[in-house]
Amino acid sequence: MAEIFAQLGIDQTFYMQFAIFVALFLVLPPLFFKPFQKLIEARHQKTVADRERAEELVKQANAKLDEFRTRMTEERARARAEHERVISEVKAEEAKIVGVAREEAKKITQMSLENIQNQSAQLKRALEADVEGLALQISDMLTKR
S-S: 14 plus which of 10, 57, 136, 140, CB 3.0-4.6 Å? Predict the structure, then answer.
């Protein structure tokens, strides 16, 4: 067996190297790899937790957006109803004002018509009185010539 070890180049340093390798194999994982794995696992868990929190925040934001849209629709409907109510009140007031103005214009027109008729009748009477006087003057003038 010593000959085989000699042919392979295995001497006493091999056993030392093997012992160092086994020691490192047993010592390095708990000292170096396990803390590193814990760090990686902690980062992974934090990333997953942050992703879940972000998804929750997105859900909350979408819920608030839906609530906002619902309230906006309701407020638009209220504003539209209020606008229509105000418009109908304004139209009713306008109709009332126009009706009063028409009545007043009708009264003024009627009074003007009556006034014109009275003046026309007075002028006719005055003209009839003047016609007789003029006729006498014309006949006097014609008879004097």
Answer: 10
Residue extents of the structural domains in the chain: 2-144
Other Cβ atoms closer than 10 A to 29: 13
Q: Which residue has the tokens 């010539």?
A: 145
- Can you tell me the distance from the alpha carbon of 107 to that of 113, in angstroms, rounded to the nearest whole number? 10
The 10s digit of each residue's pLDDT in 114-143 is: 999 999 999 988 888 888 888 888 888 888
Report yes or no: 11 and 5 within 8 Å, Cβ to Cβ: yes
Q: List C-alpha distances in Å: 108 to 87, 97, 113, 123, 145.
A: 31, 16, 8, 22, 53
Question: Residues 6 or more apart from 11 whose CB is under 8 A from it?
Answer: 5
